[in-house]
Amino acid sequence: MPGRLRGDARSWYAQGNDVKHVILTHGGVTSPQSHADSCAAAADDALAVLNAGGEALGAAIAAVARLEDDPRFNAGTGSNLRLDGRTIEMDAAVMASDGRFGAVASIERVKNPVLVAAKVLETPHLLLAGVGATAFARRLGFDDHDPVTEGAREKHARALAALGGNGDGDFSSDAARFHALTAKRFWNFDAEPLECDTVGAVVRDAHGRFAAAASTGGSTYMLRGRVGDVPLLGAGIYAGPHGAVAATGIGEEIARRFLARTVYDWLADGVAPARAAQRGVAMFPDVLAIGVLVVGRTGQAVASNRTMASAQLVG
After folding, report:
1. CA-closest candidate to residue 64, choices 49, 75, 51
2. Is 96's pLDDT higher than 50?
3. Cβ atoms 206, 107 nearer than 8 A
4. Residues in a beta bridge with 212
5. pLDDT band for position 277 (50/70/90)?
6. Rounded to a whole number, what is the distance in angstroms from the first to the last CA of the chain?
7. What's the pLDDT at 292?
8. CATH topology (fold) of 3-71+91-97+195-219+227-314
9. Which residues form the catalytic set?
10. Following DSSP, what letter does each residue of 77-146 receive, concatenated?
11. Is the CB of residue 298 less than 8 Å from the CB of residue 272?
12. Residue 8 forms beta bridges with which residues?
């Protein structure tokens, strides 16, 4: 099924082997359809890498870097401010079908965490975190970058109001849960206290290689140093010889279910990508927002239980 598809696709899929490449991108579960233009642009960047002779991994990285640069998404520039109003900690990961994996967690003040995660592939390590990850980025020439945007400040103000019981309704349940279970007892920011999504891409190139990449600014309601699913191998992303998977949603719930590797294992067992994607979403109760991108040897699919900006580029 050569061609393009973009928009709010809670469930769509394609099958067949008569394609040279497949690129799927998403802007995070709950992201509106109006943001699909950026997902399509990210897919175009990935295609440019493939057309220049690059492999699936480079294409997936290029797609996610483009999404990190769009301040409408909670990744890179546009990442969520934590409740102290100052801290932004970001996670990112990349994986290729030959088993290479690199990730950063709780990295600060870089423009494109996914590019730093890609550099971890050149080390003996799988994951670098916190100040070590940021120092690694500086050592490799990544400039100091302040990712705070006016949109992040406005979102922080609304989240803070909800925590104080004066919100507009959008953050109320998350604020109540965080305040009751976490805020008073475990607060670990320097200052006194006053939703979660991820961008991602999966790619199959003309040589049958697969890759996945993802990046996130985390949730507003979280303690400093919290790490979600994205940089955990097999949770937020996974790639192997049978395909690639990228997930988005509440990181702790995704990690508990080892979601990306679970969906991948279904592909390895011969389950069609569309069915694997739908089964992955069905693992979660409806109250939890969840979405997945899946590409395999026999097709590709996107599934989510909420609106999710996404794009497909097949050729």
Report:
1. 75
2. yes
3. no
4. 95, 202
5. very high
6. 8
7. 98
8. Glutamine Phosphoribosylpyrophosphate, subunit 1, domain 1 (3.60.20)
9. 198
10. TTPPP-TTSS---EEEEEEETTS-EEEEEEE-S-S-HHHHHHHHTTSS-SEEEHHHHHHHHHHTTPPP--
11. yes
12. 309
What is d(CA 89, CA 74) in angstroms, rounded to the nearest whole number? 11
Across residues 189-195, what is the average pLDDT?
A: 52
Integer angstrom CA distances of residue 133 from 22, 101, 187, 213, 288: 31, 15, 23, 17, 30
Comparison of pLDDT for 134 and 147, the residue scoring more: 134
Determine the Cα–Cα distance for residues 182 and 175; give it in Å rounded to an integer. Answer: 10
Mean pLDDT of the region 283-296: 95
> What strands lie across the sheet with 90-96, from one edge to the other?
3-8, 308-314, 22-29, 199-204, 210-216, 90-96, 101-107, 127-129
277 within 8 A of 254, measured Cβ to Cβ = no
Band of residue 193 on the pLDDT scale cut at 50, 70, 90:
very low
Given a cut of 70, whether residue 213 has pLDDT beyond it is: yes
pLDDT, residue 40, reads: 98
The residue count of the chain comes to 315
The pTM of the full predicted model, rounded to 2 decimals, is 0.88
How far is the C-alpha of 154 from the C-alpha of 298, rounded, in Å? 44
pLDDT of residue 2: 43
For residue 271 the two structure tokens come to 């389950």
Q: In what order do the strands lie in the sheet with 237-240?
A: 11-15, 299-304, 290-296, 243-249, 237-240
CA–CA separation, 245 vs 273, rounded Å?
A: 10
